[in-house]
């Protein structure tokens, strides 16, 4: 057996196994044509996590006139947050400040945004997906204080 080449023996065994298997397949399915298996239908699975949000900017502006409200509204529609300084408009006309704030409140209601005061001369306005956190305890304390003063 020392003279026998091991590679030839392995080739003969492998080729013999292949020949034995091929006729068996033909005997079992002689009339069935061989076709490729259909590709499995892949179900579209919704994302389990939302795609990353676009960049949101926090922009500051000074309201000098009522005509500048359109620019601020455009920023909110773009998804940005605005901090608005009202002092220059307040120095000109208190009624214009009231009109501007009412106008912004109405607009914020339409886009489901939020608005809040930041002290005496600034307000912050946010688009629909951003809400302003308000400390409930501070509100209740002020309301309680006002009601005791009224009594």
Q: Structural class given helices, strands, pairing?
A: alpha+beta
CATH structural fold name of the domain at 58-132: Translation Initiation Factor IF3
* Uncertain residue ranges: none
Strands, total number:
4
The CATH H-level homologous superfamily of the domain at 58-132: SepF-like protein
CATH architecture of the domain at 58-132: 2-Layer Sandwich
Strand order of the largest sheet: 1-2-4-3
Radius of gyration: 38 Å
Q: What would CATH call the class of the domain at 58-132?
A: Alpha Beta
Mean pLDDT: 76
Gap from first CA to last CA: 117 Å
Largest sheet: 4 strands, mixed
The portion of residues forming beta strands comes to 5-15%
Helix content: 40-55%
Which series of helices and strands comes N to C? HEHEHHEEH
Shape: rod-shaped
Number of helices: 5
Q: What do these coordinates show?
A:
The protein has helices at 6-28, 69-77, 87-92, 94-111, 136-150, and strands at 58-62, 81-85, 114-117, 122-126. With 151 residues, it is of the alpha+beta class. Helix 2 (69-77) links the parallel strand 1 and strand 2. The longest helix has 23 residues, at 6-28.
Helix-strand blueprint:
Blueprint: H1 6-28, E1 58-62, H2 69-77, E2 81-85, H3 87-92, H4 94-111, E3 114-117, E4 122-126, H5 136-150
Parallel strand pairs: 1-2
Antiparallel strand pairs: 2-4, 3-4
